[in-house]
Amino acid sequence: MSARTRGPVGWAAVLVAALICALGGWSYAQARGDDTLAYARSRDAALAAGRHHLARLNSLDGKDATSVDAGLRQWLDVSTGPLHDQLARTRKKDAEDLRRAGSTARGTVTDAALTALDDRAGTAEMIATVDVRITERTGRSGTERKRFEATLARTGDGWKIKALTAIPVGAA
Asked: CA of 23: how far to CAs of 20, 31, 34, in Å?
């Protein structure tokens, strides 16, 4: 089919296709530079890190000294600021208490949300519900449901928990 025999319908189809391609390219260029996408990525990263770190802070294997020390080291790895300082300050006493108890705790974040995010300042606020399965040295086990407010701070190693507050069940 030559250009001469294509007719007005053929030219209109080519024109419409070219316009759709141009509109798609313009839309992609606009979205690629959109600040809301960068904000959404930051929000998702903060929430994912907060969930992971909160589960870590509610988990510990108390079977032996090596496991307790490894767990306390992980607590320090996921914290920063005042929380990190407090955990470092009380680490020796915490280790003794945890070894003596011999219990194992496994935290699972069942629900979480960011309530605030300041991407420029590198801070976020999070609320979460955590189920903690505790197994005592005797083998007896049970699950506790806990609620937390956490303050996150972006560090050179990513988002970490800076402050952690337990919210009593039934509190509004």
From this structure: 5, 12, 16
Q: What is the pTM of this model?
A: 0.77
Sign of the dihedral defined by the CA atoms of residues 84, 88, 93, 96, in that order: positive
> What per-residue confidence (pLDDT) applies to 172?
54
Model pLDDT for residues 60-98, shown as the tens digit of each residue: 998 888 999 999 999 999 999 999 999 999 999 999 999
The radius of gyration of the chain from alpha carbons, rounded to an integer in Å, stands at: 26
Structural domains of the chain, ranges and CATH numbers in brackets: 42-167 (3.10.450.50)
Tokens standing for residue 80: 């920063």
What are the φ and ψ backbone dihedral angles of 67, each rounded to 5 degrees? -65, -40
